[in-house]
Amino acid sequence: MYGNLIDALPSVLGWANLAAVVVGVLAGICVGALPGLSATMAISVLIPFTFGLDPLVALGMMAGIYNGAMYGGAIPAVLLRIPGTPAAVATSFDGYPMAQSGRGGYALQVAVVSSAIGGIVSAVVLMLLAPPLAKVTLLFGPAEIFWVAVFGLSSIVFLLGGDPLKGLISAAFGVTVSLIGSDTITGYDRLTFGHLELLDGINIVVLLVGLYALPPAIDLLEDPSFEGTGKRFTLGTGSIWKAIPSMLRFWKTWIRSSFIGVLVGILPGAGGSMAAFLSYNEARRAAKNPDDWGKGEPEGVAAAETANNADTASAMIPALTLGIPGTSVAAVMLGGLLIHGLQPGPLLFRDNPDLVFGFMWQFLFGAILLIFLGGSLATNSFAQVLRIPRPLLGAIIIALVFIGVYSINGRMFDVYLTLGFGLVGYFMDKLRFPLPPVVLGLILGSFAEENLRLALRIGRGDWSTLWHNTTSQVIIVITIAVVVGPMILRVIRSRKSDTEA
Amino acid sequence: MKLKTLIVSACLVAGFATSAMAEYPEKKIEIIVGYSAGGGTDVMARTVAPFLERYLGNDATVVVKNMPGASGQIGVTEVANAKPDGYTIGTYNLPGMMARTLDRKAGYSAESFTYLANVVDDPNVIVTPKGSDITSMDKLVAAARKEPGGMTVGMSSLGGDDQFFLIRLQKESGAEYTIVPFKGSAPARTAVMGGHVNMGIFNLSEVLGFRDDLNIVGVARPERSDLAPNVPTFAEQGFNVVNGSMRGFVAPANLPKDVEDKLVDAFKKAYQDPEFTKAMVASGNPVSLAAGADFKALNQEQFEFAKKVWETTPWK
User: Fold this and answer.
1) Number of structural domains chain A divides into
2) Residue A226 has pLDDT above 70, yes or no
């Protein structure tokens, strides 16, 4: 197998294939950076055009876009508090405060280096461990996946913000939105009010741009005077190579977040946002100064960005070996493979080793290219958008958002939905309801429900099937340790300090 | 001078008008696909398009337009409501498209279409995990009879060909199963491979790439498939069940007869092209042609079966 890996290298190094990766990364960064456009969308737009292309050229572009977009999403998250992709939500926690205090350039450099590291680790894991890790995926049936979803949902506890009640209301809103659409098990329509457009549920991008992109854009319009102009322009951009040594102290976070990202990637359905949230939480817990997090701690940016890129190539592991995509981007990529007659499954590795292993190399090159292309592109081009007068910038963002949302399915309905969510988001913002719980609730709510019901069907109504096997028990223990553990510790510590006092 | 121009232009207009009547197609033909780019149906449409161009002649251009949503319903409704001029055709899936007219308020019915050609017939198969000792229908039915409902069956969604196959099988074998409907066939297949369910019902193309990790117990065709000659049919094992998922092309109802003939003819010629079969099989589409009236009869048969199932054992 590793022989195949080396054999595939020469064809990847052909100029057309390399150029495809470069173009893909550049396009991906741009798509990721523009709110409303996502990697999923870019790749699905690209797929029809790749029909006549050489497969490796097409796959190289897709791999590049995926890697590029996962980083690109960080750019508006840092500069404008608008995550460019769902996975960049956690990046804005510390990235935006950094930009406000004049360290936006450094935040972007941390983001690009961390993204590249996550991407490289993920690509190497894909290259070396795909078949054995596919066996790990097989351990996860509906019961086990249900517990993974519960684990993800319980991490909402850390995202509640100052007011737990408001946080829980936000989470409940997200879960409710996730229920919209045709019930995946019985096929009953839920909360669709007879609209065919709602049968497939609410697209995460529609919700995301509604909640995250529109309110800040409206803010830009509301307040045309440029607050802190001077401050924002000192982006703090030096050469990225000079900045890297100062980042080496994040090595623990890089390792931990890469591990989390890869792990979330091989589990079906969860995706980059969950990876980013989990790794942000874990990094903060491990930090010596957890109270500074959310106020501009570069390590927070590193944690989120490492994890959402570490999730890219690893999400291709279940996609290529089992046909089950770990993320929505991996799902459209499967379509891109299918269009070139490449059907996922173990036979793919045997029948088309040059293509499969070539594709893996392209993931690696895409991740490495991020440092070269991403750093300068972000700071030299995208950061300049802040020079645009605020009302103009707001208007441009709103236009971009609507174009992006319209192009998901080519219908106005989604634009109206986005407007609706924009209104909700605007008021949530003003009333200080935290937004991250909504995103996690939407991603994991119906996902947990679906798998719970499948597990109960398999167990024929017997709830004990949920904790009968070892994999489930392990996840349950981890969940309790991570979520309940800190609370118990806090109680014990406060008792101790009480008695000492 | 003026008169001359007028006459010339009149002649030109008349010339174009008659040529339009005589020589379909004279502008681009759109195939509406009710799924997003890269899905099985989409790949079928994109594979078919160049062959249609070749056999329609007249420098025809065929483009694919994706209108995803509501399991293909949005796209097929668009086709039903399009102008019947032969420039809008669409992909059509059975039994799904007919089943949706039963379990949902649909904006179309069996009468909304001109049936051009069904080109794909992907037969159902039963698979079990590699380590399972259930490798034949005898063993499977014996296990299912031992404990009614004790066998859990993974499949993709209710109200599709997978479930209809199971209903046909239950009638033949008289055993009860517990259906576990996943969101799509890939997660269901993974659950079978991981041993989380006892067996799975899929389409042949969905399991061919996983032959080494699954036992394929049988295939629901009248005779064995060329794609898996070692897999016995259910009929061979004493259960006369034939069922599958079908994909084809329809146009709006009331298509002019000459346009219909031309399109049906082009599909027939494409089907006979060995290159076409090769391209289709490579993209996981086992081909089988039912053109024109045959397709219409096939649709009617599928509709009546779905209706019977819906009336006796509704799936929702």
Assistant:
1) 1
2) no
